[in-house]
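Below is how a single chain appears once it has passed through the pipeline. First comes the sequence as given, then the structure the pipeline wrote out for it. We keep one example in the README because the format questions we get most often are answered faster by looking than by reading.
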Amino acid sequence: MLDVHDLPALNAGLNSLSTVLLITGWFLIRNRKIAAHRAVMITALVTSSLFLTSYLIYHAQVGSVPFQGQGPIRKVYFAILITHTIFAATVPFLAGITVWRAYKKRFDRHRAIARWTLPIWLYVSATGVIVYLMLYQMKV
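Resulting structure:
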């Protein structure tokens, strides 16, 4: 059974999976494999939603975890964390609009916003893993 302290590793795994799914979805749509793209992107949405739920449960119980690194790495960590956090706040809205437009078959508008949503969502997923590694796995 998972303990609350296992959730950061689970979250990193979910973020890693989201990253792979987003990249896969991009390749699929570039190759006009629309049904596969749809399935992969829905899976990415579910994976990211599971991440967000787990993240909120963890931080509601544990609170924030201070970064222990010192020196230049501290600046690197906070630069990544700040940009990650700002972009992460936009992902639910961007992803929601993007999915809604696809659902409504407004593919011209879907594509227009997806060009913004994908790189932001991808950045957030990838930097989420980096933040995890720096916060929980880096030896200081």
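The two ends are 29 Å apart (CA to CA).

See the next section for the split statistics.
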